[in-house]
Amino acid sequence: MDIRFEEAEAHFEGRTVLHPLTLSLTERRIGIIGLNGSGKTTFARMINGLVAPYAGRVTVNGFDTARDGDRVRAEAGFIFQNPQNQIILPILREDMALGLKSRRLPTREIDAAVNGVLSRFGIGHLAERRAHELSGGELQLAALASVLVTRPNILIMDEPTNQLDLRNRDLVERTIRGLDEDVIVISHDLSLIADFDRVLLFHEGRLAADGVPWDIIARYREIAA
Ligand SMILES: Nc1ncnc2c1ncn2[C@@H]1O[C@H](COP(=O)(O)OP(=O)(O)OP(=O)(O)O)[C@@H](O)[C@H]1O
């Protein structure tokens, strides 16, 4: 991945939520940690253009999030904190096909892509199920599948193991570890990001620390104490 923030900042209702930030992200697996309200989600949403910079610039693989939003969102798929809000159509297979239909792909190609992702995650048995009937872990995998079928190069996940029991948390963690795509994961589950390439710590709307997991997690514990 090649993500660049150039003096990028975010404001909500006249308040600075992310102070001007300049950094470049090129690693395969990046974790984002910090206290509630520290600006993690805002930072992640700026990466795929869901939050536009109030000032400065954000680019993703060379595309400017403020000018090439559609292209940026094709590069970087976002999996929201509440996966139930992400699945739009009742049946998982239909939901997975939705994004590809809007790209006007032929039905045969859409079916092949959907089946490919379902089998990759071993969740073919969920294809015809109603999303609102799925368990938390199944729903998280379904949301991941619905985004992955559109073939983004980068996956941004906002607290993917939030609200999951231990078994589902293990399942989702293993799935994330096995992904070929580059990942950016916001998590309060520190074990999930403990072996990542780089971790960013946000505090009060600023990047407070940036480095290898063990070091940054230790800094986070100091801040939280
Ligand atoms: N749409 C919005 N309108 C107004 N304020 C917002 C909006 N989104 C976020 N904020 C504010 O911006 C600040 C940072 O929020 P953000 O969601 O980025 O934090 P976070 O670190 O992801 O928190 P959490 O761990 O609780 O999810 C908070 O004070 C929040 O209230």
UniProtKB/TrEMBL annotation:
Please state which protein family the record places this protein in.
Answer: Belongs to the ABC transporter superfamily.
Q: Which residues form the ABC transporter domain?
A: 3-225
Q: Which Pfam families match?
A: ABC_tran (PF00005)
Q: Extract the PROSITE patterns matched here.
A: ABC_TRANSPORTER_1, ABC_TRANSPORTER_2
UniProt cross-references to Gene3D superfamilies, sorted A to Z: P-loop containing nucleotide triphosphate hydrolases
| Sorted UniProt keywords | ATP-binding, Nucleotide-binding, Transport
Is ATP-binding one of the keywords UniProt gives this record? yes
**Nucleotidyltransferase among keywords:** no
Q: Which SMART domains match?
A: AAA
PANTHER family annotated for this entry? ENERGY-COUPLING FACTOR TRANSPORTER ATP-BINDING PROTEIN ECFA1 (PTHR43553:SF24), HEAVY METAL TRANSPORTER (PTHR43553)
Please name the GO terms that the record assigns under molecular function. Answer: ATP binding
User: What name does the UniProt record give this protein?
Assistant: Energy-coupling factor ABC transporter ATP-binding protein
Coiled-coil spans in chain: none
